[in-house]
Fold this protein.
Amino acid sequence: MTFKSPVMKNILLLLSFLPVTQVICGQAALSPHVASYDIRVELNTEKHVLTGTALLNWTNPSADTVGELRFHLYMNAFKNSRSTFMKESGSRFRGTAAKKEDPETWGWIDITRMSLPGSTDLTSAIRFIQPDDGNPFDQTVIRVPLPEPVLPGKKLKVEIDFITKLPKILARTGYSGDFYLVAQWFPKLGVYEPAGMRGNEKGRWNCHQFHANSEFYADFGIYRVSMTLPPEYRVGATGVRIDSVMNADSNQVLTYLAEDVVDFAWTASPRFEVINDQWNDVSVHLMIQPEHTGQARRYLHALKSAMDYFAEALEPYPYPSITVVDPPLHGLQAGGMEYPMFITAGTVAGMPERVRLPESVTIHEFGHNYFMGILATHEGEEAWMDEGMNSYFESKIMDHVYGEQRSIYDFPRFHVGSAENQRLGYTGMRNPRIASPARFSWEFPHGGYGSLSYNKAATMLFTLENLVGRPTMQEIMKTYYRRWKFKHPGGEDFIRVVNEVVRKNHGTRFGENMNWFFDQVLFGSGICDYKLASVQVKRIQPPAGIEEVGGNKVTYRNIEYSEELYENRVIIHRLGDVVMPLEVKIDFDDGSSVTEYWDGKEETWEYRHEGSRKIVRAVLDPENKILLDLNRQNNSFTLHPRQGTIRNWAVNFLFILQHLFHIMAIFLA
Amino acid sequence: MHIIKNYLRGARFSIRSWQLVTLLYLVHTLLGLVMVLPFYSAMKDTIGPSMALENFHESFQYTAWTEFTRNFSQKMQVFVGIIGYALLFSLFVQVFLKGGILAMIREDYARFTLKRFAEACGTWFMRFLQVSLIVLLLHLVLAFLIWLPASLILQHQFTHTFTGQSLFRTVLITLILHFMLGSLLFLFGEYTRYTLFLSDKTGVFRAFRKAVVLVLNKIYLVYPLFLLLLVNGILLSLVWFFLQKATGFGTGLTLLLLFLLQQAVFWLRNMLRLWLTASQFYLYSEFPNPLIS
């Protein structure tokens, strides 16, 4: 859209310096604008280099006097093999190794000038620091002492000139051919956490190094970003495009504005097909590869389904736009990542409709707009709060939209649901005791980060939902969202909401609070496994000896018993450390059944019944509430096992073997 | 004409040789049962009194299946190891049977006797084993020669330019190439055996060289017949595919029906194998002076 009138241009220029949607719509800001950026950047597509200038506008959110700033220089994680990121990851990410011999593999960021308005230079005072591991070669965090401390509530402006060399795509940033995914590309201020926030006793900078497993954490702000790049490139970005002009060099200059966000990422490629759509008042942009356009409908359906679900479960998506990026095959390393109002998904040509991996990734990454984008938790320190909660919602949405037990793979004889897949991702770990999910994400030196932060945390929330009931769980999530949206909640904040809502709805049915639950499964590393050890039925022998009947001594054998009596026993073992309340359903031979409740605390538990009925089977946790139970196969016991399934498998195995021998005979003998 | 005539002649032979087909079927089934019976017992032991798989026949359950295979995995690893040895053993058995099969084909409609069959098996075993090892070695070399450059091309092109479609096309072309060259190797091996069998000479390498020349010279006859015979197998697979769909996941009586169907299909597969060998052998016999001089 272009305006010829100079008055109109001036009005637009004036408006463009203000939060546009909030001004136009007359809305109050959704978040505290602690760290806002005005960035102008030029992309050199020959050298894959960004040259930029950023104006940071920071407000001290604390009651402290702050004498220094700390910045992330994330791109330096890819500077050499000695950075903490490269050392921890072994220079591999998602199975792809960095090609060390290729100089184009590496990426870096240099700050060429940093100053306060009025030309007070800060550049010479910049120092690299390594707050996490002391690795002197890591240059992902800098400390900048200020000549004058910033008083509580006061603003500070900092001008920064920087040059960023993008790496060949690795860890979801960089370039591949003419495809660019530009993320973590500018000097990004850490978060100054005031006392009381996320359990802090006193104010402090929270600015960790870039680790192999860690993601990001930043303050809310307004981002106004102008990027200059060749005219054939199609661009998608966080925020809304507010201006598009050609400069004197015939390059396009695109300006984006994003409000109430914690980050800004963008993508560019001349090959993108752009499909625009709408969800309520939200503009939807799909930047898709030409060979994948047949799957555009799938992406959009998944995205809109997620938007519908979150609108109901939490609140409607609050931003004016969302951009979904479909990377090329050679740039798939950029897929499956989340930034505010901007997500990357991924697919391959010919992806069958019944394999819903693109849908699953789209829903997951969109969910991060809530869990990380709006509920701006610390992705590095408490990964379970974004990955776990988001995986929980991802599975709920997938199973809701595409069907339980068939939402991911949906073939007639092989189908997999998202929720069960989350659970099996955790229960299938080689060592589920390896750590608790509540650790910092770089503190999983021997593995388990993904299974515990994503799968176990999601399964924990499903188990919680099954225990307290779906309505209570829905109320918990809504309360948590409304109380903490556009803030930085910590784990304890969520647990406080759980305790409050459960107490309100269930009184002390689950104890004084739910801390027992979180202490075991979130902060602890124990496992949950209950086993139905045995079902025993023994006929009670008629008594022997002599009994007084009407003053006469008679032997028992003369007394007639109208029916046979049985002693029935069901024995359960607790094999794990985690204690969960359980139900046990016991079926008798006359078709009747009883359901017993056990608090699950003792190592063993026994149910006894004497009477004319015989137990035929027993099932532990018959409604599958305790999804954290590692082995559900041992949760049932029948006295009359049916072998139909394994007989079927054996018959099929024979058929396969016969053919194996046969094929070999044809081709080799 | 050569092709159709020998194709039909081979069919006639395989239909009349039901005893030989049954023998081949029993040998494969016996080998299979040696593996399957302990496998079944181990599965039964793993599931024990659990009801986790009781409703599996009604619908597939990923959770039950995954937990079962997980609990069964240690025992399964033992079976996976044994399968390797079983295949090796089976290779020897198959090579052993080949001489008997060719003897029966040469005698055409003569009555099948186990004694004559076993004698022929023993006579040709060592020479045919050498042929099999040569063919196996060449298959490995072929796989290396085809897939190494293909993977290098893929790796080189993958960065920056490859799309999913071009990746698919490259893999498909490589697979077709592998199939065509692999089937040629198979034909070289087969015709080497026929050469050895009819000439009764012991020079395996010489026979192989002759067979290569023969197959390449007569490729317009040899390859179409091979493809025609391959269609038999594909048709049977299609029939089985639809039959299997109709039977579903059987337990009880339907499982018995499934078992009988499977075994019938496998019996037919053995018949097709005889058909393949007989048709090619007859074609070979018609070539003018193909023998080692």
Notes: Residues 644-668 of chain A form the longest helix (25 residues). The CA atoms of residues 40 and 226 of chain A lie 5 Å apart. Chain A has twelve helices and 36 strands. Chain A has a mean pLDDT of 93.
